[in-house]
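Following the same procedure, backbone shapes were mapped to integers, yielding the entry below.
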Amino acid sequence: MKYAGFWVRWAALMIDGIVIALVSVALNFVPMGSILVPVLPFAYFVFMVSNHQDTLGKRALGLIVISENFEKLTLGRILTREVLGKIISSIIFNLGYLIAAFTSRKQALHDYIGKSVVIHKDPTKENKVWIIVVAIFAGLLAIVVFFGLLSSITLVSLNSARMKANDASVKSSVTSAVPAIISYGKANGSFKGYKANLVLPECSGKPIVNVSADGKNFAIFGRLCSEEGRYFCVDDKVDVEYGYVSEEQAKSGKPSCK
């Protein structure tokens, strides 16, 4: 019986980290991805150990997980080890993993909690040092790339949400100005001279107000933040005439959304 030491176990974990990172990035593009990503590591380890007594990382380095009595772990023990045990090992600054370097049977804290050990499937086979070094380096690189991609995806999502919120503000402000300009027209007999006092997002800029030569028609345009050169338009026929127009139309002086 040959127990797996700290570095070979860490190398296996790095390989598993690459697998989890790649799947996590893919899940960010599917519905409910934000819910699935946090549970993915636990699901991965529970599934692999319960069905194969290893993970892809452990398999690459010839390791398996068994009970302290050298039997296959029960599902209950696997859940205890892979979920509760690893949460505890992680929240104490990963010291739960580190103690595998100092215990007699190379057990991490989650091994003690799950009453398990990690051993070499073939105790006569030696792992080459370069394989372990490459696995650790690749795993660390994958973690850096993963968090970089995750940060980029998060920033893009936040920016998209912010732009949509700004667009909603533009549409709301432009639409809410209609009663005021209609009141102005009734009071003055014409829409000429109306100054739009709208508060639009900075990314939108100032609204454009076009009034017909006879002062009987108007259209108000607010530039969208999410789409360059596209404006939201509302005119004096607001019940039936509103929508999106090009920058060219907005600046043409035409008092209509058509």
